[in-house]
Amino acid sequence: xxxxxxxxxxxxxxxxxxxxxxxxxxxxxxxxxxxxxxxxxxxxxxxxxxxxxxxxxxxxxxxxxxxxxxxxxxxxxxxxxxxxxxxxxxxxx
Length: 93
Description:
Strand content: under 5%
Number of helices: 3
Mean pLDDT: 77
Low-confidence stretches: none
Distance between the termini: 51 Å
């Protein structure tokens, strides 16, 4: 399977899922619901891409779960870096 198929109109699917969840959080989505939204968007994206590329839907669900989980991790990683930078600035400040 060629992984370049898992792009949504030229954009990497992981970036699309992460962006959608980030926008949802900024518009008031409670943090506790972010993983569920991330998985739902990831699965929807994965299924859509698999249908578009003629792949089995189950493959799209599997890729979607990985996309959603990775999007949660990418977002949390970014938040961790922000917190550590803020702490460093407070210590130096």
